[in-house]
């Protein structure tokens, strides 16, 4: 007999299941259409595995195989090669971006010369003008340029010689103080303490006829003349550091605007180029010059170097009426520099960009500068692109891999590009990660960045295995461990030290002009004196890197992994990993220093730090409130709420940018970080203010009314901007 | 007997219901927590109903009951009253924002005077210095200031009189051309053609000792001396138009930066204030002066006005050795101006702002300027606030209702506030809607805005019933219909004409400095001559508005409804209603004009429009591609995709802003829209370029190398910015 349905039970079951079903449907199923947002930890592991040291080595071998001076056919070849790697690597969009800019070249067949003349004008000695190939076949390339400093003035000058140590401001002041006049004379100075362009500027301002630059063996070959390339990474005697002496940034003819087709270009005479000739020589050659100087004026103890000579100041020679002749033949001309831009669009926020960049041009072979960084950049692009191709995963935000052109001449490619895209970058760029020479030694990581990224870079360093077996043996398992051990932060010894961004590489325009939080990083060596010995010489070869500095490319791998971890963190974290409270601490410490130094002087001249102090306190309160109160209650399921918070985090740095520029330096806008006005390489915090205090010295408002007025105006601007930046973190308007 | 359960059926039912449940849960329930996004059409109807003409009338009665000159206690009273209305209206957050700025006041007990002296120095006639109360009780207030021009220099000057018509550049040039020198003389000129500050500047530049200003009855009382206030809206003979003669914008002592506590302030001598005294007088008084001028130099036909006199140019008087004496006693001092900011946070995009603003200060009673606009503003805030309180509905984006302080002195409140919040506004402001005098007549709507908002304002006008019964009778049912009939667009007669923004009100800083798309609108009268007759006089009373101009406040209601429709559109539309292609058409037409005028001149001097033309073509292609291809495929269910598109639409206008300023005018940044350099009230498109072409005249590159250089530089900047703005609309980077 067929059972009758038990309708009550059936209905009850149906209702219960309907409810359960509704609950499952509502809460049990993710609404993401295609969930490719894998956990960050898993992506980190996948990325770390994918990065290949041997790829880096291969790239470096290619990149260091030809001299690729900006604007030459080889330079385009390298930029195209990077483009092809980006395409091959699976990036979504790759652009080769040309800019026609003013570059500067030596005469290939007629090298610049420095000669020693006797009283009759007869040449006793002349520099060779070229570096001798010593080891690798590529050193013999006919494309290697003779020795030169880009943007040197043309001309032949003759005169007595004055030795000016490192050519710093204080060095020239010392010479003046003991009555040695550089006017009408030729200055010889050592590389290694400040940017070479600033040496030339001081010499030119002092009335010198020309400048000769050399690298002292004390700094660059401390183990002596025999322990040098190709046996070690030290500098041989005929090696010459090339380099630009441009004091400006970006294309000298199109300041503040991009060098596009049809752009207005300044007359060359108005560009910030030296008006006197300058030429770099080897230390073997410098020795001959220095040994010829009269013993009349001995140089101070700390001006003595490593040459086989006692250093005298000049200006007379031992032999009566001898002189030095400096002959420079340069061509300055419009040439095309190329950037290679590779884009991997973001999964959820395609209009938010994390940029990773390095330049592609080099003075000669550039095995370290820039090939070590470019290899890392290309491998990173391949890694992200490859994983996207294989798994469909792409980070939440867009990645832009940027190969810059003509960095060596003055960050030209990055400046022109950032000028062209300034508005879009200000609105959309999350951060810029710079690598230049990725590896200058195997001692420790070094990094410069803005305070809000301190924790991100430190956390990334904790994720990367230590590439140094000796360090691992000593118990320091990660890059972070060695970094902390080798270089602790003086303000907080539990953390490794992070420095401030100067202006020695392509981060300059992003950080100091646009206010995009930027990072620069590399592996450094211990006994650093300005730069690694072979810097900008012919001997930056694959051999140096692969055989002497980083066999197996494990340090390169570590840098690539570190940058990849940082890139992942910045591009994948739902909430941007910016520690804004850290910025407040930084500003407080820095204001303390400024106040302790200048408060009395300021008060005596009608200026006050009161509003600066108030603004910084407000900044601290605002960042703390944002971090402690606003962030924890963020509804992470609301994409626009998350975007709002991220925009505030990202734009905080923009808030520290003054669109009207620093006092007397309209080309710099960041009120906290700007290059020092006396050394392009280094950074002064609150450079606008500190420069004015340096200018005013101990003079009063009556003696220097204009400078004091500028101090008050700039204090006012700083206080306003810091306060407004703090306000931008408010929950509401 | 108990029936056994039929498990098969039960299970089947359970499974089916589970599946149904899951489907309901997944697709049948909206994920919005609380859906308060009602259809825009419904909200429009609700808002239209809520706005009350009688409220507007009541507000206007209060606002015009006391003189509230900026920086006075009455001004604070009005700002506080607006604050209280905003709070009462239900806005989320209301701020009273003070700025200490340089304001300028006459001596209350010792009015400025213009006197006619005979050859012995005896005073024959002296102006009264005050306007006579004629009708309303509030005209008798002891708080009414004597007649003055704010920021006039102090001092007493004596000399002959020169009549300079409207004081335009061409008027002064005419005087010069016929040999009448204003040097050492006093200029008398008519109000009504250009901004009064530009009249004074030209006089000062020409060496005049002082300036006397009056309103000619031909322009301001065309029906004769009897048909005037209080019987009509025409100007009585002792009425005097007050007003500022400041040529700068914002607080004169803190250019480019906000006047915050501790801000650096310029010495007053460096502020852009006139160096000569200036005083406005009534036309009855002007008549006495003009009738005293010698008949030697008759003024041209079109310089003749409506006074009972033939106008002569001077400078001699009929009587030998007579002269005019101008005595001005002003106090310039730091005083506090207040803005009142009321915020209604957005439902989905709280960090996107639609701003609606008008100023609160007035020269005397300000029944029209600004009370007609302020009443509308306050009623709009109440309307939106009230509906939010009643229904919980709030628009998608944030509304900010802005009552500005010290607009009359030079847009000071809006400038200081926009300078203070510049960064945040650049990032977050969608649009700024300005109303000043909401109703100057009942003829037609007038509006000035940027091309991307043409269609939005026109669509809004179609939604608003015509407040003019005669027009309705004539078949023109909406505000749009009359507007189109009365003032068709010459380029497209199917659309009503929209003008360009000058700099006569608070939109200036938003549009011309920050690049926030702005709108200005009001109801105008037909036979306009510069301003409505009672403008800035004592007789801008409630009586004029309520009894003569807009009984029942129906025109005010129409303006309020129009602004509300526009506000709703901008704040509620998922995709911003910006017509970017319209901008391209505008640029093309304008470039055509410039090219047809200047191409030969430019070509003869090494300048070219080629890249400008290319950039505009690129702008057109980009806006069309964006509109036709990108917009239609937008996934509107993806909030971040919608945000991306909206950011591009919103930021396009920012792209036309040059952070480095226009040539020689760093205070203006918009390359397309800027006030004319010869009349602050009017607007030149591409003012930077047109000004340079005016300066260069027909002179060659050899004769004026610097100006030609500036032309080339600015052409380069314009071309770059238009191109980059176009690029910002790309789908990817």
From TrEMBL, chains A, B:
Biological processes per GO annotation: proteolysis
Domain Transferrin receptor-like dimerisation residues, every copy: 608-730
Every Peptidase M28 domain range: 339-543
Cofactor: Zn(2+)
Class of the enzyme per the UniProt entry, highest EC level: hydrolase
Catalysed reaction equations from the record: Release of an unsubstituted, C-terminal glutamyl residue, typically from Ac-Asp-Glu or folylpoly-gamma-glutamates
Compartment(s) of residence: Membrane
EC number, UniProt record: 3.4.17.21
Residues passing through the membrane, by range: 7-29
Alphabetical UniProt keywords: Carboxypeptidase, Glycoprotein, Hydrolase, Membrane, Metal-binding, Metalloprotease, Protease, Signal-anchor, Transmembrane, Transmembrane helix, Zinc
Membrane topology annotation: Single-pass type II membrane protein
Chief location bin: membrane
Annotated Gene Ontology cellular component terms: membrane
Domain PA: 157-243
A Gene Ontology molecular function term of the record: metallocarboxypeptidase activity
Pfam families: PA, Peptidase_M28, TFR_dimer
Family: Belongs to the peptidase M28 family. M28B subfamily.
Descriptive protein name: glutamate carboxypeptidase II
Organism: Daphnia galeata
């Amino acid at each position: 007999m067929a059972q009758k349905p038990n309708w009550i039970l059936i209905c009850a079951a149906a209702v219960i299941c309907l409810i359960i079903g509704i609950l499952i449907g509502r809460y049990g199923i993710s609404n993401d259409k295609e969930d490719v947002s894998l956990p960050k930890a898993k992506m980190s592991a996948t990325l770390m595995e994918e990065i290949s040291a041997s790829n880096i080595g291969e790239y470096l071998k290619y990149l260091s195989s030809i001299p690729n001076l900006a604007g030459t056919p080889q330079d385009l070849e390298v930029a195209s090669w990077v483009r092809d790697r980006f395409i091959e690597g699976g990036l979504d969009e790759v652009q080769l971006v040309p800019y026609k800019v003013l570059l500067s070249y030596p005469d290939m067949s007629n090298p610049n010369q420095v000669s020693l003349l006797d009283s009759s004008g007869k040449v006793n000695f002349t520099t060779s003008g070229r570096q001798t190939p010593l080891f690798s076949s590529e050193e013999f390339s006919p494309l290697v340029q003779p020795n030169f400093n880009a943007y040197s003035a043309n001309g032949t000058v003759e005169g007595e010689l004055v030795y000016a140590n490192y050519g710093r401001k204080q060095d020239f002041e010392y010479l003046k103080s003991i009555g040695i006049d550089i006017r009408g004379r030729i200055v010889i100075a050592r590389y290694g303490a400040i940017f070479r362009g600033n040496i030339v500027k001081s010499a030119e301002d002092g009335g010198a006829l020309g400048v000769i630059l050399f690298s002292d063996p004390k700094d660059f070959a401390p183990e002596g003349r025999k322990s040098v390339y190709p046996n070690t990474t030290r500098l041989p005697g005929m090696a010459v550091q090339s380099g630009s002496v441009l004091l400006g940034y970006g294309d000298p003819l199109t300041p503040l605007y991009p060098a596009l087709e049809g752009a207005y270009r300044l007359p060359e005479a108005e560009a910030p180029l030296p008006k006197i000739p300058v030429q770099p020589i080897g230390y073997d050659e410098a020795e001959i010059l220095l040994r010829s100087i009269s013993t009349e004026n001995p140089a101070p103890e700390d001006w003595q170097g490593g040459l086989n000579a006692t250093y005298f100041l000049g200006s007379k020679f031992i032999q009566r009426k001898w002189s030095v002749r400096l002959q420079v033949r340069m061509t300055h001309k419009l040439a095309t520099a190329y950037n290679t831009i590779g884009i991997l669009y973001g999964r959820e926020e395609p209009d938010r960009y994390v940029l990773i960049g390095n330049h592609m041009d080099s003075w000669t072979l550039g095995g370290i500068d820039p090939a070590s960084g470019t290899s890392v950049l290309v491998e990173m692009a391949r890694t992200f692109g490859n994983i996207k191709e294989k798994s469909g995963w792409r980070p939440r935000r867009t990645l832009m891999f940027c190969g810059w052109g003509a960095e060596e001449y003055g960050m030209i490619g990055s400046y022109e590009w950032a000028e062209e895209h300034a508005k879009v970058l200000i609105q959309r760029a999350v951060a810029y990660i710079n690598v230049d020479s990725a590896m200058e030694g195997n001692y420790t990581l070094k990094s410069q960045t803005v305070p809000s990224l301190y924790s991100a870079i430190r956390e990334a360093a904790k994720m990367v295995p230590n590439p140094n077996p000796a360090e691992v043996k000593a118990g320091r398992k990660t890059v972070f461990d060695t970094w902390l051990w080798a270089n602790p932060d003086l303000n907080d010894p539990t953390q490794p030290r992070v420095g401030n961004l100067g202006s020695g590489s392509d981060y300059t325009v992003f950080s100091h002009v646009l206010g995009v939080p930027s990072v620069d990083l590399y592996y450094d060596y211990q006994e650093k004196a300005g730069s690694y010995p072979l810097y900008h010489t012919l001997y930056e070869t694959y051999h140096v890197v692969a055989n002497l500095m980083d066999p197996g490319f494990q340090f390169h791998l570590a840098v690539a992994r570190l940058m990849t971890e940082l890139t992942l963190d910045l591009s994948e974290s739902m909430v941007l990993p910016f520690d804004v409270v850290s910025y407040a601490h930084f500003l407080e410490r820095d204001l303390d220093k400024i106040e302790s130094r200048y408060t009395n002087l300021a008060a005596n001249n009608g200026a006050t730090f009161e509003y600066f102090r108030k603004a910084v306190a407000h900044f601290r309160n605002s960042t703390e409130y944002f971090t402690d109160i606003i962030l924890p209650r963020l509804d992470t399921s609301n994409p626009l709420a998350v975007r709002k918070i991220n925009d505030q985090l990202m734009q905080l740095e923009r808030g520290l940018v003054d669109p009207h520029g620093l006092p007397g330096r309209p080309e710099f806008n960041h009120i906290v970080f700007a290059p020092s006005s006396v050394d392009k390489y280094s950074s002064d915090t609150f450079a606008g203010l500190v420069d004015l205090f340096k200018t005013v010295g101990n003079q009063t408002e009556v003696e220097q009314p204009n400078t004091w007025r500028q101090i008050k105006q700039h204090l006012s601007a700083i206080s306003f901007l810091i306060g407004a930046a703090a306000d931008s973190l408010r929950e509401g308007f």
